[in-house]
């Protein structure tokens, strides 16, 4: 083999090695360029949260905003923005309505019915219609009343616990209505409530007194409710008072007692009202 041929072969091998090295360097450079902007965006997002405002909408669903999810995966919302819309009813006034979220995340809806007419009301039902911000109906509920009869000039409270979080998360407005029938007879029983004691013992509030039947008939289905109000006169909670018997004879008396533990479950209140409910005993 001549010297020229050996030199050409050596030069050819060296050129191939240089070309291979150049290709490796070029591929490494391209890989670095393609990866570098992603690394920068991650670092910038960690340093500056504002750089995370760009949202990926390719799926058609906007991601939840940071910090607006609770442990159940539902976006938090402001229950105070929900509008309560009592329906106008000629004989019954829906008043002192209130809504709040308890420590379990459930919505508590409360209010009262006032019988403004001279006729006793019966078969009372409270109707609730739930709407989103676009006025689309989300849900509907019917609540039976606490008692069978509501006398003229008397007030009956109501409460509803809404636990369906996947529905109320979009809630914007609640319309409150009432269904009832007129009871064209009179009630002969006439229970009168007398409050005798009110005191605090540590974290326990105690109210006690008696119920006296001044009417001309024995009564049954006796129930004494205590409604508590906040400084805005909104209903915050309702409690049943303890009585020994649900029936009471003419000119008879029995005691009642109510004890309320003032803990984190209880909303703040400034006032309360006692109201008694009953029906005349069936005559045999």
Structure explained in plain terms:
This protein has helices at residues 3-47, 165-168; strands spanning 83-86, 92-101, 107-115, 120-131, 137-144, 149-150, 155-162, 173-183, 191-201, 204-213, 219-229, 235-240, 242-243, 253-261, 271-280. With 284 residues, it is of the alpha+beta class. The protein folds into 3 domains: 1-36; 79-183, Immunoglobulin-like, CATH 2.60.40; 191-280, Immunoglobulins (Immunoglobulin-like), CATH 2.60.40. Strands 1, 4, 5, 6 and 8 form a 5-stranded mixed beta sheet that branches. The longest helix is centred in the N-terminal third of the chain and has 45 residues, at 3-47.
Put the structure in a nutshell.
This protein has helices at about 5-45, 165-170; strands at about 85, 90-100, 105-115, 120-130, 135-145, 150, 155-160, 175-185, 190-200, 205-215, 220-230, 235-240, 240-245, 255-260, 270-280. With about 280 residues, the protein is an alpha+beta fold. The protein folds into three domains: about 1-35; about 80-185, Sandwich (Immunoglobulin-like); about 190-280, Immunoglobulin-like (Sandwich).
Topology, element by element:
Elements: H1 3-47, E1 83-86, E2 92-101, E3 107-115, E4 120-131, E5 137-144, E6 149-150, E7 155-162, H2 165-168, E8 173-183, E9 191-201, E10 204-213, E11 219-229, E12 235-240, E13 242-243, E14 253-261, E15 271-280
Parallel strand pairs: 1-8
Antiparallel strand pairs: 2-3, 3-7, 4-5, 4-6, 4-8, 9-10, 10-14, 11-12, 11-15, 13-14
Question: How many structural domains does the protein architecture include?
Answer: 3
Query: How widely separated are the two ends?
Result: 137 Å
What ranges have pLDDT less than 50 throughout 5 or more consecutive residues? 1-10, 32-74
The helix content, as a percent range, equals: 10-25%
- SSE order: HEEEEEEEHEEEEEEEE
Mean of residue pLDDT values = 81
By DSSP, the count of extended strands is: 15
Question: What form results from the Cα inertia axes?
Answer: elongated
């Amino acid at each position: 083999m001549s010297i020229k041929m050996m030199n050409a072969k050596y030069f050819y091998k060296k050129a191939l090695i240089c070309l291979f090295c150049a290709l490796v360097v070029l591929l490494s450079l391209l890989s670095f360029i393609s990866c570098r902007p992603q690394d920068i965006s991650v670092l910038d997002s960690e340093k500056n949260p504002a750089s995370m405002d760009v949202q990926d909408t390719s799926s058609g669903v906007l991601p939840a905003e940071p910090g607006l999810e609770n442990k159940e995966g539902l976006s938090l919302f402001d229950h105070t923005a929900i509008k309560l819309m009592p329906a106008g009813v000629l004989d019954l006034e829906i008043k002192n309505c209130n809504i709040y979220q308890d420590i379990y995340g459930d919505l508590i809806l409360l209010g009262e019915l006032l019988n403004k007419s001279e006729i006793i009301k019966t078969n009372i039902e409270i109707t609730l219609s739930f709407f989103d911000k676009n006025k689309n109906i989300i849900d509907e509920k019917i609540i039976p009343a606490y008692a069978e009869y509501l006398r003229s000039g008397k007030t009956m409270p109501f409460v509803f616990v809404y636990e369906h979080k996947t529905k109320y998360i979009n809630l914007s407005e609640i319309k409150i209505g009432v269904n009832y029938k007129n009871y064209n007879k009179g009630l002969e029983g006439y229970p009168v409530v007398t409050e005798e004691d009110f005191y605090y013992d540590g974290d326990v509030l105690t109210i006690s007194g008696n119920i006296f039947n001044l009417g001309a008939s024995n009564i049954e289905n006796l129930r004494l409710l205590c409604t508590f109000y906040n400084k805005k006169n909104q209903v915050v909670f309702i409690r049943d008072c303890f009585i020994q018997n649900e029936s009471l004879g003419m000119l008879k008396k029995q005691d009642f007692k109510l004890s309320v533990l003032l803990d984190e479950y209880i909303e703040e209140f400034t006032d309360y009202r006692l109201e008694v409910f009953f029906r005349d005993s069936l005559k045999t």
